[in-house]
Amino acid sequence: MARSLLFRTEDLSEYIVQFFVRHDITPKDAKIAADILLTADLRGVDSHGIIRLDTYYGTRLRKGLIDPHAPLSVVRETGTTLALDGGHGLGQIVGYTAMSRCIEKARQSGLAMTTVRNSNHYGIAGYYAMMALAQDMIGISFTNSQPLVAPTYGCKAMLGTNPIAVAVPSGKERPYVLDMATSIVPIGRITVYDKAGKPIPEGWGIDHEGKVTTNPKEVLDGGALMPLGGIDLMRGYKGYGLAMLVDIFSGVLAGSAFGDEVAQPSNNKPARVGHFFAAIRIDAFRPVEEFKQDMDHLIQMMKESPKAVGQERIYIHGEKEFEMAERRRSEGIPLLETVVDSLKASGQTVGLPFDLEVLGVIE
Amino acid sequence: MARSLLFRTEDLSEYIVQFFVRHDITPKDAKIAADILLTADLRGVDSHGIIRLDTYYGTRLRKGLIDPHAPLSVVRETGTTLALDGGHGLGQIVGYTAMSRCIEKARQSGLAMTTVRNSNHYGIAGYYAMMALAQDMIGISFTNSQPLVAPTYGCKAMLGTNPIAVAVPSGKERPYVLDMATSIVPIGRITVYDKAGKPIPEGWGIDHEGKVTTNPKEVLDGGALMPLGGIDLMRGYKGYGLAMLVDIFSGVLAGSAFGDEVAQPSNNKPARVGHFFAAIRIDAFRPVEEFKQDMDHLIQMMKESPKAVGQERIYIHGEKEFEMAERRRSEGIPLLETVVDSLKASGQTVGLPFDLEVLGVIE
Fold it and tell me: Which listed CATH number (3.30.1370.60, 3.40.50.2300, 3.30.70.870, 3.30.300.10) goes with A67-181+234-287+294-331?
């Protein structure tokens, strides 16, 4: 493993806020964006955290592809639904505002759904779903993203890794938080194998002819990721169907880009990413306390069920991430040296030295 | 392949109606149930059609485990939500009524969700989702079912094959209809391999110790199905997460049974199956015509994208089933001779000979 340096969450947060403020984001919005990025790092979804600060956000802000002052405008609104136009704003701000308004509407109407067109990459989908938890609501968020996944029997990346995130409150147990790409693995996983010079497991990706390959370079170079399930025999068309589903809600219903028309963050054009949010009041269906007791019971049922040979523990979705976040909040967030180097480089570009105190080193 | 006999859809429908009427179901309800069962046969989901007429429905009706006159009662209701108690009625009637009322509510409010507790197996989930299509709505249906799937790292069946069905209207293209079990394959698929004395593909199921096995008997005899994705390396915990999601909406939110407490149809007790339905008005978000044009565009994008070597066609979800239904509607529905034999046997039990005209034989 490469060396990582440990940093305090608060220090990283303050740095990100300053970084965004330098890009003309208001301090209030910058704090929201920092919280969303660092929630990814805390939960162990390093690929969606501070590592993208400059590549996905800073660079696009400086090029004028993300509008720091984008006004979120209402396209259509009813008592239960809200269709928004993100105005090419920062995905995190757009997403946070859209989910906040969705929750507000659900408070009034029991249910609400919000779509967003013309946004940018918004970080981890799970953040927005989890916003509903404190309100005793179920939260849902989908987003489409740049094409990386081939449809079953296809060989070209036509769909994003289009995540599904659903957060459900529980009682004594930790909440259930599903936050899953609809591909088997994200593209970053393939890059990790490529950099390490190792073959990828058979079934994660295909080459430019649509053949399953274990060579990460062939996936990265004109190939594609496989949808959840993998090959046809293992029912990969279900993962392909889920990726389509997310694109229908986030792209088509929102009136945003979809399919392979969603732009890469590195493209010099508006990304036109679309998002979908939903909030559901538990008490519209049954008393909250009863629901939470049953959630605890369902969770315990799974965790206490017999383990496979060689296994000691069954996990609930989100559980590993909650534990990771607790650990990292006390011990610090580890950033790979290469990530620290790139933060130093981008910091220099914008005149904001990345010189935070290092709490420790992990070899 | 075993021999199949071909029957007219109308003849089978009339037979099913008579069969249910003999079990004290009203003719109106019997017609609905027949339509739902035969929609499965027409679409090629033979496992969920007439094959179950007696095992899942007739037998349970005669034992008093399904109440033919169950009144659907309202547990809780708001302008957008409806929590129903199915009163241990026939799953198809409960499901049809619940989705009809969900659609009616969505017509008023833009969105609606309906849960049902204390129901029985309701057939194919896709039928209820598709009910929304003619209303220019997106339809969603989930149901939980008897335990057949082990959680990741577990070895005991704790969750049903809990399907996700979503139907979305399109313009010139056929609608998108996702109707997928959250396991890799249904249990019936394992039985087919077992009867044929063939090994199952590696990854579909595990034995009683949680080890992946290719012996179908080991899956059937105290083992379990694997969730979509399969083993951990291929991200089977995502399929496990989706199965949990369906159980949370259908079981926990509905206040019905969940996890391994949902009874097998062959058990001598109420199944307490739970369902979830949602309907979403397209025009709450954007003009229906624009939406349909974009759906067509998304569908064409996929279908016209480059094919993998050796493949000639990319499918959209539901497409194969729509084509199959057209063919079977004109050529007849094929029933395996063993299925015909069991229909004859159950027909004799209830004094309703199964002696329909055979249109042809498929060897």
Answer: 3.30.1370.60
Whether A203 has its CB under 8 Å from any CB of chain B: the answer is yes
Q: Could you give the CA distance from residue A356 to residue A63 in angstroms, rounded to a whole number?
A: 27
Candidate from A203, A244, A301 with C-beta closest to B260: A301
- Options 3.40.1280.10, 3.40.50.300, 3.30.60.50, 3.40.50.1010; CATH of B185-225: 3.30.60.50
Q: What is the mean pLDDT of residues B55-82?
A: 96
Q: Answer whether A311 sits within 8 Å of B153, measured CB to CB.
A: yes
Q: How many CB atoms lie within 10 A of CB A3?
A: 12
A184-192 mean pLDDT: 92
Does the distance separating the beta carbons of A307 and B158 come in below 8 Å?
no
pLDDT band, residue A161 (cuts 50/70/90): very high
Which residue(s) pair with B277 in the sheet?
B114, B141
In A, minimum Cα distance to B207 occurs at A308
The mean of the pLDDT values for chain A is 97
Query: Does residue A2 sit at the B interface (CB-CB below 8 Å)?
Result: no
The predicted model scores a pTM of 0.98
Q: Which of A152-161, B1-10, B155-164 has the lowest mean pLDDT?
A: B1-10
Judged by CB atoms closer than 8 Å, whether chains meet at B307 and A153 is answered as yes
Residues within 8 A of A (CB atoms), B 13-72 only: none
User: Which two tokens mark A38?
Assistant: 């660092």
> Do B67-181+234-287+294-331 and B1-63+332-362 fall under one CATH topology?
no
Q: Do B176 and A244 touch (CB under 8 A)?
A: yes
Q: Which residues of A touch B305 (CB under 8 A)?
A: 150-151, 154, 156, 158, 260
| Closest chain A residue to the Cα of B206, Cα to Cα | A308
The residue with greater pLDDT, A226 or B71, is A226
Q: Which chain A positions have a beta carbon within 8 Å of B76's beta carbon?
A: 284-286
B154-194 pLDDT, tens per residue? 999 999 999 999 999 999 999 999 999 999 999 989 998 99
- Minimal Cα–Cα distance from B65 to chain A, Å? 25
Confidence of residue A1 (pLDDT cuts 50, 70, 90): low
The yes-or-no verdict on residue A333 having pLDDT over 80 is: yes
Mutate to test the interface with A, among B170, B291, B302 (most CBs of A within 10 A): B302
For residue B1, pLDDT beyond 70: no
Distance CA B18, CA A1 (A): 69
Q: Which of residues 101-130 of B touch A (CB under 8 A)?
A: 109-113, 115
The distance in angstroms from the start CA to the end CA of chain B is: 7
Write the DSSP string, A123-189.
S-HHHHHHTTGGGTEEEEEEE--S--BPPTTB-S--B----EEEEE--SSSPPEEEEE-SBSS-HHH
